[in-house]
Design goal:
The chain is built from seven helices and 17 strands. The chain has about 270 residues and is an alpha+beta fold.
């Protein structure tokens, strides 16, 4: 079962398996429902009207997107390479408490086939393909989407305290093309693939699996919900295990293709 958010003449509208959901249903209403009741609720709210229209990011303005850092060994190595304070990242990787940080409000998220951006004041920029959990108000994982946590490595490498500037800016967060409703146990070993195309030719290819995440998915969610409430649900990126080499940086016009499980998210670097 897949949820999508589409453009219509009357504004964004949600659909399930290419059929419209009843108006004015929003994602937050679905994320107010306990996980074991969600399928029945969606069937109750579905119509037999085919859904049409360009895809938008599968998130509404009242959801937040958070992210996890240094959850893969490859990410740990990359952070060590980019920074003079590599021991900080070693400690995060092995610590009981995970690194969690705010990424974007829902209204700032970019969708499938929409342009993303790199910072003008950063000389080293990379995409970060990530399994992104969709979590309801009760802290239950109800599904996932594909995510791109674009990162300015040169800025974060200067000082770990610059992380918000390296991670949070216009066009730095992409999600899509849909939300796949899936049991969390089915997400622990999904394939993750990244292809960066430049001038029609592959410039970088990488693969990993979510089974290489150094933490349990429920553990990340538990820490996120410790002192925060998300009454309309929340998205959580789970970290990246694919990092291009030091000599590679994104450029305007590059196409980023990210596949997580059965979902493929495509974005081009715009102005």
């Amino acid at each position: 079962m897949k949820l999508t958010r589409c453009v219509t003449p009357d504004g964004p509208r949600w659909a399930v398996d290419e059929l419209w959901l009843a108006e004015p249903l929003e994602l937050g209403s679905l994320l107010e429902v306990p996980r074991d009741e969600l399928s029945a609720f969606i069937k109750l709210m579905s119509t037999d009207e085919p859904a049409k229209g360009p895809l938008l990011a599968p998130v509404d303005a009242d959801q937040e997107v958070w992210a996890s850092g240094v959850t893969y060994q490859r990410s740990r190595e990359a952070r060590r390479e980019e920074s003079d304070m590599g021991d900080v990242y070693d400690r995060v990787y092995a610590a009981a408490r995970p690194e969690l940080f705010f990424k974007a409000p829902g209204w700032r998220v970019v969708g499938h086939r929409q342009p993303v951006r790199i910072r003008a004041d950063s000389r080293w920029n990379v995409p970060e393909p990530e399994l992104t959990l969709v979590i309801n108000r009760f802290g239950e994982i109800i599904g996932y989407t594909a995510g791109n946590d674009l990162s300015s490595r040169s800025i974060e490498g200067e000082n770990p305290l610059y992380l918000p500037q390296a991670k949070i800016y216009d066009g730095s967060c992409a999600l899509g093309p849909a939300i796949s409703l899936l049991d969390p146990e089915s997400m622990v070993d999904l394939p993750v693939e990244l292809t960066i195309t430049r001038e029609g030719k592959p410039a970088f290819l990488g693969t990993t699996r979510t089974s290489k995440i150094n933490r349990k998915l429920d553990e990340l969610v538990t820490y996120l919900f410790r002192e925060l409430n998300f009454p309309r649900g929340v998205f959580l990126m789970t970290g990246t295990g694919i990092v291009p080499p030091e000599q590679f940086t994104l450029a305007k016009g590059d196409t980023i293709t990210i596949t997580v499980g059965e979902l493929t998210l495509i974005n081009e670097i715009g102005a």
